[in-house]
Amino acid sequence: MLILGEMEQEILKLLAKYKITPDPLKDQFFLVDKEILAKMIKVANIKPNEKVWEIGPGLGTITRELAKRAKEVIVVEIDPQFKPLLMALPRHVKVIYGNALETKVKFDKLVASLPYSLCEPLMHQLVNAHFRSLVLVLPQKFAQNLITHPVFTARYKTKIMSEVPKAAFYPQPKTSSVLVKITRKAA
Fold this sequence. Notes:
- The protein has one domain (6-18, 29-184): Vaccinia Virus protein VP39 (Rossmann fold).
- The protein is 30% helix and 26% strand.
- It is built from seven helices and nine strands; from the N terminus they run αβαβαβαββαβααβββ.
- The strands form two sheets. A seven-stranded mixed sheet has the order 4-3-2-5-6-9-7. Strands 1-8 form a two-stranded antiparallel ribbon.
C-alpha cells in the first residue's frame, strides 16, 4: 500500500477541492517533498529586505514559504485555474497572470521549481539580468549543460545542491531533477 507524505496529502486535497488536474504537457509537477522545499528555502537564504520572483507558483506551496521571509514576492502564473488559490496569498505577494517570458520583473532572487519547458528560454533572458542568485529545480541534464556551457560559465557559477527524486513531485515527471544555485561571478 502506498503511504502518502503529509505535504502530498495536502496537495491532493487542494487539487480535489479546486477541481484542478495537473497537466504534464504544461510541466505541472507539484513539489510534494518537505525536505526538498526546506532545502530550497535554506539554499536561497532569503533576507527580509529582498524581492523574490517565482515562476509557475501553481498551488502556492513554495510561494507561502518565500512570503514568510521576503519583503516582497512576485509570482507569475500562466494557468488561470490556480487563480482562486493565488488570491489567498499574503498581501506582499504580487500575482501576475501571464507568460513569465514576456514579463519584466526586477528581483534579487529567483526561487522556483520551473516548468521545464521554460528553462532554456529563461536562461537566455537572464544572461544580462542583475540578481543575487537563482535557486531552481531543473532537469538534471539541463543543469549539467549549464555547468559546462562556455558562455554561461563565463558569467555564472552553477552549483548542484541536491538531487531531487521523481517521487518528490505529483504527478511524477519522467525526467530526473536537481536543485541548483546560480550566482554571478565577480567581474
